[in-house]
């Protein structure tokens, strides 16, 4: 029963440190509007899917390591992958639109009529 709560996030039990990126979801009469902050990500490293009422946003980045003659004292840049899953039912999946600009992903998920 609880898994059917609209906008239920599958990682609600995790701390905000582990959630990866911030997402806002707004509802209008005709659609759901989703905005996700993905700073530093490239469009080609994003994957979006909508299946069985679940919207999945996956973002993956991989730092390239250049051969250097310098000794690295500390290295914190690495491959990261973030995934957020939201239950948003009653969507016309054939008319979902997406835009990614300046590190912000904007989705329009039209409601079924």
Task: Please tell me about this protein's structure.
By secondary structure, this protein is an all-beta fold. It has a single domain (2-110), classed as Immunoglobulin-like (Sandwich), CATH 2.60.40. It contains no helices and 7 strands. It has strands at residues 23-27, 31-37, 46-51, 54-61, 80-87, 97-101, 104-110. The strands form 2 sheets. The protein has a 4-stranded antiparallel beta sheet with strand order 1-2-7-6, with no helix packed on it. A 3-stranded antiparallel beta sheet has the order 3-4-5, with no helix packed on it. Residues 12-113 form the SHSP domain. It holds the Pfam family HSP20. Keywords: Stress response.
Question: Secondary structure elements and their pairing?
Answer:
Blueprint: E1 23-27, E2 31-37, E3 46-51, E4 54-61, E5 80-87, E6 97-101, E7 104-110
Can I get a quick summary?
By secondary structure, the protein is mainly β.
Low-confidence stretches: 12-18
What CATH calls the topology is: Immunoglobulin-like
Report the CATH architecture. Sandwich
> What fraction strand?
35-45%
- Radius of gyration, in angstroms, nearest whole number: 17 Å
Number of domains: 1
Overall 3D form:
elongated
Q: If you average the pLDDT, what whole number results?
A: 82
Please outline the major beta sheet: 4 strands, antiparallel
Please bin the fraction of helical residues: under 10%
CATH C-level name: Mainly Beta
Discrete helix count: 0
How many beta-strand elements? Answer: 7
| Strand arrangement, major sheet | 1-2-7-6
* H and E string: EEEEEEE
Pfam families: HSP20
Protein name: Small heat shock protein
Family: Belongs to the small heat shock protein (HSP20) family.
Keywords: Stress response
């Amino acid at each position: 029963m609880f898994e059917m709560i609209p906008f239920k996030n599958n990682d609600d039990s995790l701390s905000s440190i582990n959630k990866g990126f911030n997402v806002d979801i707004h509802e209008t009469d005709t659609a759901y509007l989703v905005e996700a902050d993905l700073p530093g990500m490239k469009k080609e490293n994003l994957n979006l899917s909508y299946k069985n009422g679940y919207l999945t946003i996956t973002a993956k980045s991989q730092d390239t390591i250049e051969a250097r003659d310098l000794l690295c004292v500390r290295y914190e840049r690495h491959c990261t992958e973030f995934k957020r899953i939201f239950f948003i039912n009653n969507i016309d999946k054939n008319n979902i639109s997406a835009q990614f600009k300046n590190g912000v992903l904007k989705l329009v998920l039209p409601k079924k009529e």
